[in-house]
Design brief:
The protein has helices at residues 40-49, 133-144, 161-176, 183-191, 201-218, 233-239; strands at 18-22, 28-32, 54-57, 62-63, 66-67, 80-83, 86-95, 100-107, 112-119, 151-154. With 240 residues, the chain is α/β, with parallel strands linked by helices. GO terms for molecular function: protein tyrosine phosphatase activity.
Length: 240
């Protein structure tokens, strides 16, 4: 995906496992693999280089006893970590029961950037949550992010959970523009930018639920739904 890949500058190698997905309304997403030991400095280079003020993380560091992401930021307010020549300082950290919000100051000798970090950990890999509440919180964060600033979104591989969220946002953007694409069209569009976007049919289904819930909230139609009966553990297996 050379046409959409993020090209690093000022690093020994210009490659990072990340691609742009850009919307007609000006929103810009960088979909990326979770930082690993070999790529943490490159990840923060991308944040600084692209002037990203919002990072959305859709995974835990460890899932099912496997490391999905290295700890690339401090978790205790007032503390810092160093990643080569980059200092990341945590100013504030809050959890509202759905998402954890952290505010970082990211500094090099030449640059300082204030970054908002959102982590949602209730989304199993290769699957989907039983409720959309966390995804709706993420939607609000994306909606409030100024369009002149791209945002970074990652899970572990940066294709399943990540592109499910981006796909829902793209569906909403196209509907708002009265360009009525099917969800299959949306996935095809994303896969031209990020190979393997949306890994499972249950994630494809969840894209629809996010869009449905957004419109229901806008129209004040009902309280949030629970989709456990739609894709229970037994039902999920039929989508694999």
């Amino acid at each position: 995906m050379d046409a959409t890949r993020v090209i690093l500058t000022g690093r020994p190698c210009d490659y990072i496992h990340a691609n742009w997905i850009k919307f007609a309304d000006g929103k810009k997403f960088i979909c990326t693999q979770a930082p690993m030991e070999s790529s943490v400095r490159d990840f923060w280079q991308m944040v600084l280089q692209e002037n990203c003020h919002l990072i959305i993380m859709l995974c835990s560091f460890i899932e099912e006893d496997k490391q999905k992401c290295v700890p690339y930021f401090p978790t205790l307010a007032g503390t810092s970590i160093m990643v080569e020549d980059v200092t990341i300082t945590l100013k504030e950290r809050n959890n509202n029961g759905l998402i954890t919000t952290s505010m970082f100051v990211v500094k090099t000798k030449d640059q300082e950037l204030h970054v908002r970090h959102i982590q949602y950990t209730e989304w199993p890999d290769h699957s989907a949550p039983l409720k959309t509440a966390g995804a709706l919180e993420i939607h609000r964060e994306i909606f409030n992010n100024p369009r002149q600033y791209p945002l970074i979104i990652h899970c572990s591989a940066g294709v399943g959970r990540t592109c499910t969220i981006v796909g829902a946002e793209l569906m909403l953007e196209r509907i708002s523009a009265r360009q009525f694409h099917t969800a299959t069209d949306i996935v095809r569009i994303m896969r031209r930018a990020r190979a393997g976007a949306v890994q499972k049919a249950v994630q494809f289904l969840f894209m629809h639920y996010i869009v449905l819930e957004v419109f229901c909230q806008v129209l004040h139609l009902h309280a949030q739904l629970n989709y456990s009966g739609v894709y229970s553990d037994e039902a999920i297996s039929t989508f694999s």
